[in-house]
Amino acid sequence: MDKSKWFMVTTGIIIGCLAVLLVVQGNPGNMGFCIACFLRDIAGALGFHRAAAVQYVRPELIGLVFGAFLAAFSTKEFKSRGGSSTFVRFILGVFMMIGALVFLGCPLRDILRIGGGDLNAVVGLAGFIVGILWGIFFLKRGFNLGAAKIQPTQAGGYIYVLLAILLLVMLVVKFNPSGSGPLFFSTIAPGSLHAPLWYALGAGLIVGVLAQRARLCLSGGFRDFF
Question: For a tag site, which of 38, 43, 96, 153 has the least CB within 10 Å?
């Protein structure tokens, strides 16, 4: 294998090890990293839903944003991009999130669950691959949402980073999580289960850097394979 492939393999091993470490440190089982679950918990912590069991600001996701941003910025790859078919992308994102939460995990968590011996995750992976094959079918027949284009201003690219900083400040200060908000934290599992803040933030930072450099994308990887 060439250096780029070795780097991707090493990235996968490091992410797997960090995911196990986060579970050992307090995260729910097989949820060392799960982007869908983290977004769900953060949405609950901000009061966008009131499911009491899944409300917490997951520092791992904040670290992912910081890590990817720093990696892209330091290599001069950070560029604000936007594409066409915005509403279609939004609807596709909605259905992707529904599917992930019904399954109880994003594709990354699915792989981690397989590593943990969960055979249900094998069924989920099979469905994930079938979905990718359907996507390839439509792509080969001309379906295209349009390429992402570099925007004239880079301001939009910094918004998500600023939101991540704001979330981290609110998490560190703990803005009334047990009262009437603006943060709401679960007192029961799985939302109440979490690794220490700085462990989670550090792990997310490392994975963010590695994911940006390795161009980590499970659906894209399977698409290219087929």
Answer: 153
In sequence order, the 6+-apart residues with CB closer than 8 A to the CB of 174 are 183
Task: Write out the DSSP string of 157-189.
Answer: HHHHHHHHHHHHHHHHHT-STTTTSS----SST
Task: Please state, in angstroms and rounded to a whole number, the distance separating the CA atoms of residues 107 and 1.
Answer: 25
- Contact, 125 vs 111, CB < 8 A? yes
State which residues form the domain around 78.
3-225
Structural domain total, the chain: 1
Average pLDDT (174-183) is: 68
Residue 167 sits at the vertex; the CA angle it makes with 210 and 31, to the nearest 5 degrees, is: 50
Tens-digit pLDDT profile for residues 84-133: 788 888 999 999 999 998 887 899 999 999 998 888 999 999 999 999 99
Q: What is the CA radius of gyration of the chain?
A: 18
**Residues 53/189, Cβ–Cβ less than 8 Å:** yes
Kindly report the pTM of this predicted structure: 0.90
